[in-house]
Specification:
alpha/beta; 46% helix; 170 residues; globular; Rossmann fold
Length: 170
């Protein structure tokens, strides 16, 4: 049984969730490791400046529910000297996790693409786009489909980065 399954059983039994504590430690370790990417990148500042001067502009666009994807996007942005853009729906998702899961499931099942709060100005100037998002219901969130449809990305290098969290299931 995985850590999440163990944590779920402990919670049902009213026992302390040791698995969740381990998960938080693992999460911190992962974020710390990613932070070293940013620190180690300072030696490449001159190379990045040269690339940007040549017009090889990089965008890091991301959608984040809990903040994990935002952290990873920020690390990539700092490591590459890129521009950062937060993808947001025009109408925010519910703060309550279960309500948000329900809305995301409905959007997925209907193929709904929510309007965006904003689009990237001058997307044409970016040659490489890092696109970050969490996995929702075994796929990309609907707002990512909206982002992809609203921006002309033909001829660009698109590099996805994905975050994922588990919950005890349906």
């Amino acid at each position: 049984m995985g850590l999440c399954g163990l944590g779920y059983l402990l919670a049902l039994a009213g026992l302390p969730n040791i698995a969740a504590m381990r998960s938080n430690l693992n999460r911190r370790a992962m974020l710390t490791a990613l932070a070293t990417l940013s620190a180690a990148s300072s030696a490449a500042d001159d190379e990045r400046s040269e690339k940007r001067a040549k017009g090889d502009d990089i965008l890091v666009a991301y959608f984040s529910r809990s903040g994990n994807t935002r952290v990873v996007a920020g690390l990539i942005q700092r490591a590459l000297g890129a521009e950062l853009f937060e993808i947001r729906p025009a109408m925010a998702y519910p703060d309550d996790y279960l309500e948000q899961v329900k809305k995301a499931t409905e959007e997925r099942d209907r193929g709904f693409e929510p309007p965006l709060a904003a689009t990237v100005p001058s997307i044409a100037r970016y040659q490489t786009i890092y696109l970050g998002f969490p996995i929702w219901g075994e796929t990309a969130p609907a707002v990512i489909r909206s982002f992809l449809k609203k921006h002309a990305l033909a001829g660009k290098t698109l590099i996805p980065f994905i975050t994922h969290g588990l919950w005890p299931g349906k």
